[in-house]
Amino acid sequence: MAKLSLPLLLLVLLIFFTTSFSCPQHQKQALLQFKASLFNATSPFTSDKENKPIFFESWNSSSDCCDWHLVNCNSQFDSRNVIALDLRRLFGRLEPIVLASTILTPLFHIRSLMQLHLSSNQIQGELPGDGIANLTKLIFLDLIDNHFSGSIPSQIFNLRYLQYLYASYNSFNGNIPNEIGNKTKLQTLSLQHKNFFGKIPSSILNLKELEELDLSYNS
Ligand SMILES: *[C@@H]1O[C@H](CO)[C@@H](O)[C@H](O)[C@H]1NC(C)=O
Ligand SMILES: *[C@@H]1O[C@H](CO)[C@@H](O)[C@H](O)[C@H]1NC(C)=O
Ligand SMILES: *[C@@H]1O[C@H](CO)[C@@H](O)[C@H](O)[C@H]1NC(C)=O
Ligand SMILES: *[C@@H]1O[C@H](CO)[C@@H](O)[C@H](O)[C@H]1NC(C)=O
């Protein structure tokens, strides 16, 4: 067996630690891109620092994104992927700025995501279906209190692990799709407030795990 000299061993260990215990480079880049487009989108409205989205001071390229505010990684030994993003109420108590849903594009590159919270951000436009389709590990999706419009993307109903879907208080329109019945793992489905019209599909009866269903204030 070849012997490693002590300095070499230390170097190998150092490389191992620095590469294995921080978030993957491409996920960090995706998050930095999200931050950049968020700040770019808000810059015409906010000259003064007080008015910026909060909590992003820790998001810089020299630190591990698993240590950043609002970001959670798994604690597996071999890889630390980003598994949860808590992007609720990005402007805190300040008046939020209307954001285009394209701002979410970089987030759809983080395929290890299991929880995504986006509520109360005034995001408007369609929720990109092909982006959502990328997040195949998603268990929890919170879109409450934005201005998402168009139909709710059918790709959501292909997310096999999805258990919690909160989409109330948006401007989705159309029917509740028949494919809802395919989401047999769904435990909570919250679609209240002026989003949907038409019949409630009978396939909803296939949701054997369902514990909470809120369709109030629709047509
Ligand atoms: C920043 O915003 C402007 C418009 O407000 C847009 O034209 C430009 O492409 C944006 N840049 C980036 C890097 O997102
Ligand atoms: C980057 O963020 C870390 C915390 O995540 C902080 O300790 C460090 O000072 C920051 N570096 C710069 C250059 O802002
Ligand atoms: C899905 O993720 C891959 C890998 O990160 C990325 O290259 C691709 O652009 C993503 N697709 C969408 C629609 O965001
Ligand atoms: C839902 O399931 C039906 C069969 O039960 C299948 O034909 C359909 O493609 C599925 N739709 C989605 C969006 O998964």
UniProtKB/TrEMBL annotation:
Residues spanning the signal sequence: 1-22
UniProt keyword list: Cell membrane, Leucine-rich repeat, Membrane, Repeat, Signal
Ion transport among keywords: no
SUPFAM superfamilies per UniProt: L domain-like
Annotated localization: Cell membrane
Residue ranges constituting the Disease resistance R13L4/SHOC-2-like LRR domain according to the UniProt record: 107-216
Presence of the UniProt keyword Amino-acid biosynthesis in the record: no
Stored Pfam families: LRR_14, LRRNT_2
GO cellular component, one term: plasma membrane
Leucine-rich repeat-containing N-terminal plant-type domain mapped to chain residues: 25-74
Protein name as catalogued: Leucine-rich repeat-containing N-terminal plant-type domain-containing protein
